[in-house]
Amino acid sequence: MIKALFFRRLWLMGHRPMMTFSFMVILPLLLHISITMVMKNILVRSLDQIPYELWIFPGIILIIASMSTFSMIYRDLFYLRIHKKSFLPMTLAPYTKTQFILGFLITSIVETSIYVIVAMAVLTVFLPTPFHISTYFIILIFTFLYTFIVGNIIITFSVVTDRISIYLFILLTMFLIILFGTGILVEFEFYPKTIGIILSNFPLSMFLSNLREVIFFNRIDWFQIFISIMVAISWTWVNGYLLKRKLNQ
Questions:
Q1: Separation of alpha carbons 202 and 231, rounded Å
Q2: Are 98 and 240 in contact (CB under 8 A)?
Q3: Which of 48, 108, 172, 186 has its CA 20 to 30 A from that of 74?
Q4: What is the pLDDT of residues 187-224, one digit of tens each?
Q5: What single DSSP character describes residue 191?
Q6: Separation CA 227–CA 60 (nearest Å)
């Protein structure tokens, strides 16, 4: 099943090569121009004296991972479902609904990784000093886990929501939370103290903080990573249950 979904995504990417290429290259350029080039004139260095272009790099990559995951899951688990196109025949395959969800997640992770690799290559051109190659590998590994969690969040809303206006409002709200509430743009010390404490304890915020700890200080919180993986696996099972209930209605 995963193989079939993967080849389906490859066919879709090959069927619209210019759009795919534009998304891969132009999106990181737009984010660099609209975020990094503006913010680095305001915050030259982080509070730990890391150049802002380097400090924000992993955050920009996770934004790209989020946006690519949004676009993939929207088409496969919301658009095709509410318009009753190819979604229902796929669910009749001899697989459990949890396996079905897991197949879409793995396919999304693989495709998102391709976008992320291209984005890192594009954005590295603008860095004052490129990262060591091992750092890019670490970012890619964290992107796998990040997409696993974000993908489950999007799948939940894709399954339980039937109105496109509500769905798009939820996705827009989620994107704004990721952009402004996870420490991507500025450190939590710049927020009011209470708000900063609350936001810093969001799962996605802790995930990004852990990634920066690994990149810049060679410190890793294995407990947080383990908890994130367990939450993502459990959430996948819950999404399978939600999909089964939705199809039985």
A1: 13
A2: yes
A3: 186
A4: 898 888 899 888 888 888 888 999 999 999 998 888 88
A5: S
A6: 24
Distance of alpha carbon 129 from alpha carbon 131, whole angstroms = 7
- Comparing C-alpha atoms, which of 69, 178, 76, 62 is closest to residue 123? 62
Query: Position 44: which residue type?
Result: V
d(CA 237, CA 101): 8
* Separation between Cα atoms, residue 104 and residue 159, nearest integer Å: 13
Asked whether 202 and 182 are in contact (CB, 8 A), the reply is yes
For residues 13 and 18, give the distance between their C-alpha atoms in angstroms, rounded to a whole number: 9
One-letter amino acid of 189:
E
One-letter amino acid identity for 174? M
Q: Which residues of the chain have pLDDT under 70?
A: 1-17, 83-95, 248-249
Which is nearest to 109 in space by CA: 117, 158, 244, 97? Answer: 117
CA distance 46 to 52: 6
From the centroid of its chain, how far is CA 8? Answer: 21
Question: Which residue in this structure is represented by tokens 């079905």?
Answer: 100
One-letter-per-residue 3-state SS of 108-174: HHHHHHHHHHHHHHHHHCCCCCCCCHHHHHHHHHHHHHHHHHHHHHHHHHHHHCCCHHHHHHHHHHH
Contact criterion met (CB below 8 Å) for 156 and 235: yes
And the tokens for 94? 């001899």
Cα separation, 209 vs 56, in Å, equals 11
